[in-house]
Amino acid sequence: MSEVKSFCYFEAEGLNHGKIIKKLHLQKVVLRGVISKGVRLKFGVNASDKQKVVDLFTALNYNYKIIKYTGAAAFKDFLRYRFGLLIGAAAVIVFIAVMSGFVLDVKVNLPFRAREAADVLAEFGVREGGSIPRWIVKPSRNRSSSSTAYPTPRSREGAPPYLLTLWKN
Predict the structure, then answer these.
(1) pTM of this prediction exceeds 0.70
(2) Residue 119: which domain range?
C-alpha cells in the first residue's frame, strides 16, 4: 500500500528569496510550486519538513503564514479545529441508535376501541416510553442494516376481526 503524501504550503514576505531556497535545499527540503513575486514567496513542502521551514523563517525573522494543507495533513488540520463537530456527529449517531429501540408514541385510529387496543399492545410489552420487544423487531428486506417493528395481523379468539394484534411468530 502506498503512503499518502501530505503537503504544507507557505507564503513568506521578505527579500532575498534565493537565500531561503538555498538554505532549505541544504537541509534537503524538497520544494513544490515555488512562486516568487515581488516580496512574496509561495511554495509547498512535505508535511514532514514543515518544522524545518518554520525554524528557518523564525531564525531569519521572516513573516510567514501557512496557506493550506493537503493530503492526510489536511484531515488532521480539519480535526484539530473542528473536533467538536466530530464529537457532535458521534453523539447524534449514538442517540439515534439508542432511541430507535424505544416506542415514543402509540396512536390508535379507532377512538371507540382505543383503550382495548392499548391494552392488547401493553399485553405484548409495547407501551409509550418503553423499549420495543425484541421478538417484534424483524430485519427489513429492503435495507440490509435497518430493522422495522411492525404488528403481525392475526385474529385472536374473542377479539373483533378489525383489531390487529401482535402475535409471536
Answers:
(1) no
(2) 83-169
